[in-house]
Amino acid sequence: MTRPFEGVKILDFTQVLAGPYASYQLALLGADVIKVERREGEDMRRSPLSKEWADRGLAPGWQAINGNKKSLTLDLQKKEAIEIVKRLAAKADVVMENFRPGVMDKLGIGYEALSKINPRLIYCAISAFGQTGPERLGAGYDGKIQAMSGIMSITGHEATGPTRAGFAVCDVLSGATAAFGVSSALFQRTHTGKGQLVDVSMLEATLAFLSGPVADFTVAGHRQSLSGNQAVSRRPTANLFKAGDGFLLLAVNNEKQFQSLMKALGQEQLLQDPRFVDWDARLANEPALRKIIENALATKPPKEWEKILDAAGAPCASIWKVEEVIDHPQIEARKALQTIDTPYGQLRFMGNGFQLAHGGGKLDRMGPLLGADNDAILAEAGYSKDEVKALRDSAVI
Length: 397
Description:
Strand 6 and strand 7 (161-162) form a beta hairpin. The protein has a 6-stranded parallel β-sheet with strand order 3-2-1-4-5-8, with helices on both faces. Helix 7 packs across helix 10. The protein has 397 residues and is α/β, with parallel strands linked by helices. It is elongated and about 85 Å long. The longest helix is centred in the middle third of the chain and has 24 residues, at 169-192. The chain has helices at residues 18-28, 51-56, 60-63, 79-89, 103-107, 111-117, 142-149, 151-154, 169-192, 202-209, 211-220, 255-264, 279-284, 286-297, 302-312, 322-325, 329-333, 374-380, 385-393, and strands spanning 9-12, 32-37, 69-73, 94-97, 122-127, 156-157, 161-162, 197-201, 240-243, 246-250, 316-318, 337-342, 345-350. 33% of the residues are buried. 41% of the residues lie in helices and 15% in strands.
């Protein structure tokens, strides 16, 4: 069974995280992705987290979003490299880049130039603020977008102030948005036969994921504030609680769940207590309710309570570490992590995050060594062995 994007050729100039994450999603689904890098490779290849992997130019974080791709090195300051790009773009379905607006235009390989060569070309440009508007030339960094988008204004505690998410959430969701945009344009092309520009703004992509808080203000005038670990429902039992030697996140949001929680904690008598008879009363008496809950939770470890309360119908979770959850029986049962054989042994990486009944995402091979596919890509583009040697000798590739 073929995968959804088999036969789709992507010329990928993206780097760091947002763009490569986008093209990785499409590569898992069968797209033929040529990753174009400068001759020394992008910096993410040599992340200092692991010297062993950095020395190979295969840093773990880089590998996580570059599997199934081919590597082509080009010095885009040289006219011969620009000619290679144009030749490849003429037969490509998609070009992806995340430079600041105007950079590719100055090189002569922006959307206007390449669409004239290939009218069916879909050109995806990812930037901090999009290709238009007063901030269009602003630099795009995850932390900056977290701060500007409103995420940090609702994330954190009043006592300690705003905090950013523990991973590059804006980069990743911008990449997911870009993959969705490209997918949409590819589908639309089946009807129109025309390519188009897919203009992805990291700020707008983030706001799209904040659609709830946005509407809370635009519709009801509600201004968000730092919410700590409280759920958007603002239920006093949908929050983080001390439990045993750690913490437990309760997600108890309705009456049935509250009753189940009280019974499982051995506090069934509180269901008749006027302080906790309904949600308004519980909210008004939240400190007292929290103390009762935490006193009960203090008797067992968080993961033990997790099993007890989930079985009782009171949703919750202990605080799992990444190294724990990847071996969770649920993750294992669904093969969410894909294992591949590499020259360095078996390695595991995340897939798409969704499964198809047939033709779903599959990781076939790890991220490529720098320039590993130069000869093959150029040969397919019509360059002879002598021409490829000349390009290498003149430091074009």
